[in-house]
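It is worth pausing here to work through a concrete case rather than discussing structure prediction in the abstract. The textbook approach is simple: state the sequence, then state the predicted structure, then interpret. We follow exactly that order.
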Amino acid sequence: MNKNIIELPKEVHYIIQTLNTNGFEAYAVGGCIRDSLLGKKPTDWDITTNARPEEIKKLFPKTIDTGLKHGTVSVVIDGVRYEVTTYRVEGKYENHRKPSKVEFTGSLLQDLGRRDFTMNAIAYHPSEGIVDPFNGVDDILDRTIKCVGNPDNRLEEDALRMLRAVRFSAQLDFSIDKGTFEAIKRNSSLIRSISWERIRDEITLLLISDFPMRFITLRDSRLLQYILPEFEICFQTPQNNPHHVYNVAVHTLHSIVYVKQDRILRWVMLLHDIGKPLTRTTDDQGIDHFYGHAEKSIRLADIILKRLRFDNKSIDKIKRLIMHHDRNITPSFRSVRKAMAAVGTDLFEELLEVKKADAKAHNPKYIDESMETIECIYDTYKKIMENRQCVSLSDLAINGHDLKALGIYPGKRIGEILNQLLEIVLDNPQYNTREKLLDEVKKLI
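Step two, the predicted structure:
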């Protein structure tokens, strides 16, 4: 790590230079400096300055009033926005989230001192180099997340910082400083003051990170009981079964690691077995069973996803995949067609991804056999798609209009007949011709 030289994009250099030329201080600051020091390419660049918003707007031809009351103006260069924010200090925080007032200051040190973690309280100027009053560079070198100043004060000001610390630990593979972690435990109940949307976004970023096993930190930090209490009990639910080697929670976290870093799929894996604690039974041989856990998981997932303000489309996809994650599918054409009809062709490949991840988190003894079966199912699925075999109502050779023409009264009965025809065709794809289906309709009516 060369902490004295950071390569600024020419646009950022231009913004800093323009502000300097007109008598103002300006620095690149925050996450972009942290990521640069870690050898990562920043996704966006923030600039901090002692220039006021109205002064910033006079210096650049195109700006957007992003958040004037917080001192933020977006400078637009070639269609890309660069946020430029006036040095500021913040008044007393309300509801452990937002400051009651924001005051501008002429001090870079004061501005850096209001930030959450030392790794985000670093500024950089192409001539001056690194400005690091809180030893954030050392903490980055130590791969440690540490609050700026008194951790209790920082977390009481903005309770979302507790979740951000856990999320950063998963994204960066950093540990959380002991003092900061103990403060999170002391203040964990304050997370209840944070909106469910913000909690959802932070958990999602944690799940799609490279180190989603850090989710366990939510339990260790006492945050989990307030944001996802339904998952807490999974840590106390064993799976005494030959196919399992972990309790429900640890199995779940391993399955998340094994699925691709997709928002929907990782939420599916997090919730796919969340109903198991409610369905656990133990037989005479001491073996645990979880009959009907998929249905229970769907009900809990629906409650959780709505609580977290997920959109309806995402909820539908997640619930469909949970419903069928434990479905017994064989590589036969009939079995695969029926599964495709049940889950939907739009999600069938994702279902196979879910089943792979689930299988890999089971007893290693059975993994090879499970993977081989899933690959055979995939091959069958591809052949069904290539041959355009019927697996949905829209694929049927006749439709509701044809049934009306036969004198069937519009309404519920038409849907029932079409579903009966689909079942026939799923068993016998050769029946999907207009002539044969009309014959079947005559038999049904």
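Step three, interpretation. The first helix runs from residue 10 to 21. The two ends are 78 Å apart (CA to CA).
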